[in-house]
Queue: 2 jobs
Job 1
Amino acid sequence: MVTVNGKFPGPHIVAREGDRLLIKVNNHVSNNITIHWHGIRLLRSGWADGPAYITQCPIQTGQSYVYNYTVVGQRGTLFWHAHISWLRASLYGPLIILPKLNVPYPFTKPYKELPILFGKITSL
Ligand SMILES: [Cu+2]
């Protein structure tokens, strides 16, 4: 199955509100790939949204692309996923946006945080 860095679910991306994210995707598989940042409001950076053939051409085998956007006015746990063909069902991971430094959560700080992702494995 297609994975990111050999992990399923894919790697955790952890950022803080206000951070600029630069995420380089190197495509080492035989499928074209794009990555979508589910729930992120892309203000003036719609080209980083990821839907194949809508906001970008897919990243072809052996090619790479740097997604570049800033998280504005959002915090919480979202997720990223492939946004082309059936890969969107199995290629995903958490995207965790923490509050800005020294800004508390709007609730008591949890003892522990553990992302839980619901998904399915698509067989070829
Ligand atoms: Cu999505």
Job 2
Amino acid sequence: MRSPALTRHPAATDAGGRWESRLIRSAHPVVARVVDLAVARRQVTRVPGVGLLVADPEAARRVLSDTAHFAKQGPGSSGALWTPVLGERVLLNMDGPEHARLRRVLADLFSPRIVDEVCRDAAQPLVARAAERLRAGEPVDVARLAREVAAAVIGLVVGLSGGADRAELLRASDDIESMVTWRTRTFDEAAVDHARRALAVVQDAAEAAHRAASDDTVMGRLALQGVSLEEARSLAAALFLTGVGTVSSALPRIVGQLADAGLLDRPGAATADLDAVIAEGLRMTTPSLVTLRRCSRPTELHGIRLRQDERVVVLLWWATRLSGGFDPARRPPAAMRHLWFGAGSHFCLGAPLAIAELRAMAGMVLEVAAERGLAVTRRTAARRVLVPRYAELSVGAGAPG
Ligand code: HEM
């Protein structure tokens, strides 16, 4: 049965929107201001030394979908950055028929059955424990919960076994994230070695699961489909890099939005249409702030001529802004829909898994909120991180803070 639509509290302000801006500025103090200024007047604009900034949702969708003119590979692209660390064939650094072929091989990696199984085994125990603590009146830091769930889920996908490995996985994720800034165009040899060492925990687990070739594990299924060991090791690292930071950033930000819209503190009010909450929460938070393309053939975008090899900075977070703040009852314009997961041939492969993880966690928070009311008791923005996020966002029965 579909639950009733969740409506904002009539007196709700756009405090959630202000927190979102604060998170972006805390993560990228200088760049965020430069971008805000640059796109305030023109949503598609050239900034010398940076590239063409694209904050208009239709133009962003065109760049991501038009593979005849815009590529993931080549000088200055994120694909080029990751190739020395991950190898040549990890989706996010591929284009064209080879990319499409590999995506087809991976198509059932995140089928509804597999997503359910992975979430049941990896996420549910952690989510159930958090619910118990909330029901016992203890505060829960949902930023921490989301990191643990995201790591447990990807850990299971790549073939890790237990909690100790999870801590190592989170260290590796932080370690690699700290190597990349807005200015990073290439890694030097020492950085490549460092990143490879950090990823060894993921890749060794993937290798063992691939060798066992059991259809109980995602890596085993890849082996059964003929994906080579080398390719599976690379893909495991790519899934890890794309799947941990994004989900850990999204959940606490969505919970923050719910609280700021007045949807957690009224017992009984939060019997939500969870799909609408997650979609609107992802629009508000758009954890992959930016993605890059290279203009592979001269073209025109929004009235601006682009040269071959020009860098295009697709500002996903800026392209998904709407006035009025978080509102699960709204339907965003078509060009914006799912743009938080990208568009076109590189559309997020892990979207079904990400949504299932977010449903499990946000659903639990809303359920407890419906029983007893919840408030944000503490929150701090993380400073100078690649993926904007809360360092802490605790919810509990205490006084709002
Ligand atoms: C809320 C969570 C997530 C968000 C917002 C997100 C966002 C995105 C975006 C915007 C892209 C496209 C990038 C581009 O076109 O340049 C992408 C691609 C990708 N995502 Fe996600 N993602 C999330 C979670 C995940 C998870 C959990 C996984 C894996 C388990 C994952 C795996 C991937 C992969 C492999 C690609 C590359 C696909 C390709 O290049 O063909 N993502 N994601």
